[in-house]
């Protein structure tokens, strides 16, 4: 009998090990965190971090991470009791949020709180937030890496487990490595005289910003070539993609669903924002439609990431049509 018990225990151990290391996915510890999920296909490596905000910590090809990491934050996490008095912070790397920016519930539970993480398939994983007791909102983030490329599909589901409806939207808050070049295809005709609105101090939104040598509009593309006078910009952009050339020779492309029928909840009713902070970090922010989420209802929105080798142009001359061709090829 004892022998059978030992065999059964070994069998359970083997099954548990197989489950935890599903081909393409495994549990790891990294950057001072436990219970992270690594998804890798030999071309691209993704690491999901559930301990502080349910983020993507690593998105890399050729051993180069496209996401900004603040080493001072390694291992940073908060218990629910600590969150009540903890200051608001800006977690690094691949963050996500709900909006609109000035109207969202503003809970630190999603932004800085602890999430659960699970491997859901061969190259798939999920992170799930706690339920916010004030609103009944819970967030679920699903990740699926292509078997052969860097294509990473990210879907956030907003669930309303409360008794009141909430009007919310998806809001990406990805911190990419700093000093790169942003490429944004802008609408033509465009609602903004210069193709973008610049955010100033406090509540200032400048629809006629002063010229900036590092902002260039060419053939219906807007380029941010380096550090700018202002930090935050929003765009009237109807093509459903943006791209970013990193200083270590990668092209980070985001594609996302855009429809003219969508209602956008940001102040300027835009689907895309960029925050460019000196040479330190560039925040790449697709925004989803503003939707009512009924009690016991839910809504989902996805964006897709690609990471490709691409030489950073030291003269800052960008072949935008070449970028457009690459985006159309991978869409």
> What is the helix content?
10-25%
The total of helices stands at: 4
How far apart the termini lie comes to 59 Å
Shape descriptor reads globular
**Oligomeric assembly:** single chain
CATH fold field value? Beta-galactosidase, Chain A, domain 5
Number of E-type strands: 23
Radius of gyration based on Cα positions = 21 Å
Mean pLDDT level: 92
The sequence of SSEs as H and E is HEEEEEHEHEEEEEEEEEEEEEEEEEH
Spatial strand sequence of the major β-sheet? 7-8-9-10-23-19-18-12-16-15
Q: Report the structural category.
A: mainly beta
* CATH class (first level) name: Mainly Beta
| Binned strand content | 35-45%
Tell me the major beta sheet: 10 strands, antiparallel
> Which regions have little confidence, pLDDT < 50, spanning 5+ residues?
1-21
Number of domain units: 1
CATH architecture verdict: Distorted Sandwich
Protein architecture, described:
- The protein has 331 residues and is mostly beta strands.
- The chain has a single domain (25-330), classed as Beta-galactosidase, Chain A, domain 5 (Distorted Sandwich).
- 12% of the residues lie in helices and 42% in strands.
- The protein has 4 helices and 23 strands.
- The protein has helices at residues 2-20, 80-85, 108-111, 320-330; strands at 25-30, 33-40, 44-49, 55-61, 64-65, 94-99, 116-121, 124-128, 137-145, 152-160, 166-177, 181-185, 196-199, 205-206, 215-218, 221-224, 232-235, 241-245, 250-256, 272-277, 281-286, 291-293, 298-309.
- Strands 7-8-9-10-23-19-18-12-16-15 form a 10-stranded antiparallel sheet, with helices on one face.
- A hairpin with a 3-residue loop joins strand 2 and strand 3 (44-49).
- Mean pLDDT is 92; it is low at 1-21.
């Amino acid at each position: 009998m004892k022998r059978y018990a030992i065999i059964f225990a070994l069998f359970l151990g083997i099954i548990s090990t197989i489950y935890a290391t599903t081909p393409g996915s495994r549990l790891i510890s990294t950057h001072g965190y436990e219970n992270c999920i690594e998804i890798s296909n030999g071309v691209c490596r993704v690491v999901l971090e559930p301990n502080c905000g349910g983020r993507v910590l690593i998105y890399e090809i050729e051993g180069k991470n496209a996401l900004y990491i603040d080493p001072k934050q390694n291992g940073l996490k908060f218990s629910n009791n600590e969150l009540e008095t903890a200051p608001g912070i800006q977690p690094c790397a691949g963050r996500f949020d709900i909006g609109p920016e000035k109207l969202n519930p503003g809970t630190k539970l999603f932004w800085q709180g602890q999430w659960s993480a699970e491997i859901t398939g061969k190259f798939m994983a999920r992170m799930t937030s706690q339920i916010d007791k004030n609103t009944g909102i819970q967030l679920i983030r699903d990740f699926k890496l292509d078997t052969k490329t860097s294509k990473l599909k990210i879907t956030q589901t907003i669930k309303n487990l409360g008794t009141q409806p909430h009007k919310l939207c998806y809001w990406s808050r990805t911190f990419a490595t700093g000093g790169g070049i942003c490429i944004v295809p802008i609408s033509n005709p465009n609602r903004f005289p210069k193709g973008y609105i610049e955010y100033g101090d406090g509540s200032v939104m400048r629809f006629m910003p002063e010229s900036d040598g590092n902002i260039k509009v060419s053939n219906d593309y807007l380029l941010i070539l380096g550090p700018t006078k202002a930090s935050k910009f929003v765009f009237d952009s109807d093509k459903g993609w943006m791209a970013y050339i990193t200083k270590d020779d990668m092209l980070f492309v985001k594609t996302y669903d855009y429809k003219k029928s969508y209602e956008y909840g940001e102040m300027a009713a835009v689907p895309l924002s960029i925050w460019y902070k000196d040479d330190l970090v560039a925040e790449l922010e697709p925004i989803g439609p503003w939707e009512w989420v009924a009690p016991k209802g839910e809504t989902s929105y996805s964006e897709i990431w690609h990471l490709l080798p691409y030489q950073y142009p030291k003269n800052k001359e960008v072949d935008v049509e070449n970028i457009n061709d690459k985006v159309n090829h991978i869409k």
